[in-house]
Amino acid sequence: MERESLVVKAKLAEQCERYDDMAEIMKEVTERGDDLLNEERNLLSVAYKNVVGARRSAWRVLSSLALKNDGNSAEYIRITDYRTTVEKELKEICNQVLSLLENYLIKNSTTNESQVFYLKMKGDYYRYLAEVAAGDAKQSTIKESQDAYLKAVETRCKVGWSRAVIVFYISVYLHVTVMASLPDGSFGNEASGKIASKDNEGSALCGNRVFLSLLSQLWTSDNAAEEGEGGEGGEG
């Protein structure tokens, strides 16, 4: 099928809210190897954000239900078994997106704007993996996400802050957002303490809100994609 026809089909799938179909179509477009046009890039982002978003939401619900049940009960076992299934799907989707980014999108991008878009996307999908990971796997995926966000910041804007300060705020942002995904709603006292400590030292970046403002500079290029996502949002 011609590329233009595939894009039309992806738009139709979006109208029907068949995001799994939409993702498969845009995956095929991506694997043809050319740099995506702005519209195609947004379609890809919308498709996968909705596909992975459904699994993230399901994982959170199941994790919350598991907390309310005795760890030895039959109900707990049913819930956690199903959560494992959802988690497997979530990881497969994230790894598929990361593979597309690594093998096609980042290396074939021809503009600064598309580079930032894909690096931010890479940071997002490693962050989604971190939400369901544990132990060393959680730390390694957080590190991958941090590195991608940092590269996006450095590519996007010539900020006046030191690299160390930017790295610090990205690490806090990731800690807070990943912890916030946990079913008990924990944001992590450690992260809050770090923010307060850094602010007391007179950092040029005063608190997490300022850093989120910095990140918003990155997201400008893909606002169209985020606005098209069904309730998922750029920071979801």
TrEMBL record:
Gene3D superfamilies: 14-3-3 domain. It comes from the Eukaryota. Residues 3-233 form the 14-3-3 domain. Belongs to the 14-3-3 family. Homodimer, and heterodimer with other family members. This is Tyrosine 3-monooxygenase/tryptophan 5-monooxygenase activation protein, theta polypeptide b. It comes from Tetraodon nigroviridis.
